[in-house]
Amino acid sequence: MADTIDAYSIQNWLESCPQSYLMDTEYGHGPEEKEPDFILDNEVVLEETIKATVQLVVGERCALSASSGLINAAPDEASRRFLATQTLDEARHVEVFTHRLYDLGVKKQDLEGTIQRYANPNLVKFAEILLEKVDRKDFVSGVVGQNIVLEGMAFSVFEMMHAMNEPVNAKFAHTLSGTIADERRHVGFGENRIGSLIQQHPEKRPEVEQMQKEMSYFMLATFADAFRNNQTANELEAAGIERPHSEYQGVDLGTMEPEEMEQVLADTVLKEFKTRLGRIGIEYQTPARP
Amino acid sequence: MVDPLQSPEEVEGRTERRRFVLEETGFDEVPKRYRKFYRKWRGPGDQLGPNEAICPVCKVVIRSSRELWPGDRLYCMPCMSRLVVVESADGTLEARVSY
Ligand SMILES: [Fe+2]
Ligand SMILES: [Fe+2]
Ligand SMILES: [Zn+2]
Question: Which residues form the domain of B56?
Answer without folding.
Answer: 32-97
